[in-house]
Amino acid sequence: MTSVESVIAASTLPPPRDAFQINWIRLAPWLYTIGLFVVWEIGVRISGLPHTILPTPSRIFEAIVQYWSPIWKNSLQTLYTTVLGFFIAVIAGLGIGLFIGWSKTIYAGLYPIMIGFNAIPKVALVPILVIWFGIGTVPAVLTAFLISFFPIVVNVATGLATIEPETEDVLRALGAKKMDIMLKVGIPRSMPYFFGSLKVSITLAFVGSVVSETVASNNGLGNMMASAQSNFNVPLVFAGLLMLAVEGIAMYALMAWLERRMTGWAHRSTMSN
Amino acid sequence: MLLPRAIPLRERELPGAGLTQKQAVIMSPLVSIENVDMRYGGPGGTLAVSGLNLKIERGEFVAVVGPSGCGKSTLMKLTTGLHIPQGGTVIVANQEVTKPVSIVGMAFQNPTMLPWRTTLENILLPLEIVERHRHRLRANKKEYVAKAEALLETVGLKGFGDKFPWQLSGGMQQRANLCRALIHEPELLMLDEPFGALDAFTREELWCVIRDLHASQDVTIVLVTHDLRESVFLADKVVVMSARPGRVISEHVVPFARPRQLDILYKPEFNDMVQALQGEIATARAAA
Ligand SMILES: Nc1ncnc2c1ncn2[C@@H]1O[C@H](COP(=O)(O)OP(=O)(O)OP(=O)(O)O)[C@@H](O)[C@H]1O
Ligand SMILES: [Mg+2]
Fold this sequence. Notes:
Strand content of chain A: under 5%
Strand content of chain B: 15-25%
Distance between the termini of chain A: 31 Å
Number of domains of chain A: 1
CATH superfamily of chain A: MetI-like
Strand order of the largest sheet of chain B: 6-7-8-3-9-10
Bound molecules: adenosine-5'-triphosphate, magnesium ion
Low-confidence stretches of chain B: 1-19
Low-confidence stretches of chain A: 1-11
CATH architecture of the domain at 28-103 and 187-287 in chain B: 3-Layer(aba) Sandwich
CATH topology of chain A: MetI-like fold
Oligomer: heterodimer
Mean pLDDT of chain A: 86
Helix content of chain A: over 70%
Mean pLDDT of chain B: 86
CATH superfamily of the domain at 28-103 and 187-287 in chain B: P-loop containing nucleotide triphosphate hydrolases
CATH class of chain A: Mainly Alpha
Radius of gyration of chain A: 24 Å
Order of helices and strands of chain A: HHHHHHHHHHHH
Number of helices of chain B: 9
Radius of gyration of chain B: 19 Å
Number of strands of chain B: 10
Distance between the termini of chain B: 43 Å
Shape of chain B: globular
CATH class of the domain at 28-103 and 187-287 in chain B: Alpha Beta
């Protein structure tokens, strides 16, 4: 068959590549980020905005160095609450997603409830969580969990509920039980949806934990920014934002890497829904 | 790839080994569909088939043709127990069908290979499900893999077992699909327009694969198709269905001797039969 020959041909011929060629695509994110900071720095300097309104990046980095110890401590705290909440969301989201996707009836019955629940702004739940658990780590973890588990549930359930009827028929005709179909087809099939949803979820988890820390905690980046704001320490507020952005990007990249590792097949095949 | 047809159809050894010729004659047909009504979506839904009667003997190759939407796929699902009819009875292997029967292999137009499994793993999938094999699979893995590889070779896919389905062309996926339908040695092979999406050359090649399979193994085949030449080339009996609600309006025994070669497609008798079928279906469509 010709495809065999072409595979061999392609693997023996080294791809023509110039060793000194700069890989612009890989460099682009760094260049653009640096560009953004440069434009920001110049813009603020030219317009003469006071740093209590919009500090320059250099002033923000200065603040990071100056307040490194509290920034580091609070960053770790926020990362901890976020990741813990996200972790619970992954477990619960997988479980609930599998449960909902299990049968059409459960899917039909629970879906509207889930939508309704998701429409509630989670910040409105923080006071309730504070009544139940007091302020601090627990409400932050729970808010991160509540805000981030929904995309996981929806994606896992969708992956299960959209099994091709033909695939199901082929297996059922062999005597497959619901459990077999879920294990052999449903769950592997929903994995790309699941890993895809982790990227969305982790960023939402940061929103949840920071919101909760801002209104109901004595530590974490949310709390740090809130108190810096009341002291008019605007550079520190921005330093907090920058730390959040860094943590967010790092976790997102981790999830994207995980997705590629676990479900590479879904990126190379066209998955029909 | 041509396997000689060793024994004529009627005298082939039956799956229930040890049966004499006489017992075989009095044995009931493998599939017997009696006066079946099937309606989708509850009362007031679409009546897909009505008053459907069909008998399929062991070892027979039956092709089902008819206007689009007449209930051919429904017939397949009734036979395999994927749907239970509201009226009438479906009997497969002397048992009334009340749940999916496990002696069948199915293949559809859409190959439905699982993209996260290699072709070989896809083909082995039925063995992980079928009661008879699933407990033996782990211990006898080698034997099963060898069998899958032998099947791949028969359909002309030797050495492609470790490729993923998305690395195969549509025609190659369809061949693998056939292997998957055959791996657990089903007594009854149900093919629902399996070659619909293929080019003419691949299709004719696969016709020969199916023909040789049927000749070399004890398998009863039901093939749903829109291609009348395909039905006449392959089948012992062509069943024509009416427009919806579907029922069988006629059955034609195909008189051509086996083994049939592709050049039969250009013989006048062959074309006469195809044309007669064509006319019948046109009338059935007009009657709707
Ligand atoms: N799951 C379903 N729900 C409701 N109606 C259905 C369903 N499946 C089939 N039908 C209806 O039953 C009738 C027969 O369908 P079926 O799929 O058996 O036709 P077919 O002969 O296989 O058609 P085609 O040749 O186009 O594949 C059609 O009119 C269709 O609308
Ligand atoms: Mg059909």
